[in-house]
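Two proteins were folded this term; both appear here.
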Amino acid sequence: MPQSVATLLMFEGQAEKAMALYMSAFRGSTVLLMEKYGADDDGPEGTVKRAEFTVARHSLMCIDSPIKHGFGFTPAVSLFVNCEDEAELVEAFGLLSDGGEVLMPLDNYGFSEKFCWINDRFGVSWQLSLG
């Protein structure tokens, strides 16, 4: 039986910047662990070997892969966040959409009074909803 489940995001040199963006978008985010590659490790020195953090009470992990890969993120899997209030939603939308792609603009879609779907500048897909 698993002890815990966390979403793992794999980057190629951008993990720390992505983690900082996500933590700035949502109140109460916390870094739980940060390990970086050293001079004698497999990955580029100073990049993220393993990090654990929380965003909107969700456990996330991220790494900078030392191996180049020919794939990225897809909106088929997204992080869905029920924002506490409209101010949080609007702020998160602004931060996460900056340099990214808006798949569904912030609007009332019937199933949510305020909702948006974004691919951020790192390619991670987010669905943000009010309450």
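Next, the second protein.
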Amino acid sequence: MERQSLRRAPATCHALALASVIVAMPATAHEFWLEPAQFAVVPGTPVAVSVCVGDGNSTQVLPRDDSRIEQFVAWGPAGPRDVVGRDGANPAGFVRIDDAGTHVIVYRSNRAFTAQADTAFVAYLHEDGLESILPLRAQQDQPERQVRESYSRYAKALVRAGAGGAIVDRPVGLALELVTQSDLSKVAGTGAVTFQLLYQGQPLAGALLKAMWLGGPTAERAARSDADGRASFSLDQPGPWRISAVHMTRPPAGVDAEWDSLWASLTFELDGDRGATMPRHDRPTCQQRLLADG
């Protein structure tokens, strides 16, 4: 069952320096997603891909950081193609979408680290549906001090090449991965869409999945995954959507942290009553909104 959150999506990005983003927005408190400049293109089109981060009240575009990237590719019918770019540049990368069909743009990061006060960490667990961690912390953690956490990012975006084609997803082997098995070209903002969350390739039950329409201010929706890792949302507006989830566990041996979180996101666009017309140039990406505000 869906529930409404009081958190709101922003209409625009705020042009803040990256250093300010890091200070004001700890990385573990933020969604992370990919926004292609176009979600539907003519085959042969080069597509800019922006990397976005947000906390529900504001959104930032991040420059490319090669020190964090472990994989940044577009999987198309003919196989993978690198999303290329210059370290420190905005947008984060470009890729040429040649073959007709669905291309899954994939971003996988290495681990980074953050530390926050115990009270802030507990609030974050409640905010992101990680309450199952609380009894485990009571057994091993020491309250009233800084909590050190490692985190990694697993983002996907679906881009369709060719008019009238299907928009179909598939697993690509990420450690934490959101997948929809529906043909999103047939949803048109009228029905429920089911998403599955996979952890190490297996369904993850009890996780909090969130759905956010990226076309303007709107309430975030959330639902828990069932025993098969599935949760459904009624996607009732055409335009760009983000589905996200986070999973937390103890870190593997050799990782200097108390907790290890994995963040997954999936972005795509529903055509609504526009049908399969393309390309679309009327929806600014996170990167374009930032330039407009600046």
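The radius of gyration is 18 Å. Residues 126 and 258 are 18 Å apart (CA to CA). These notes refer to the second protein only.
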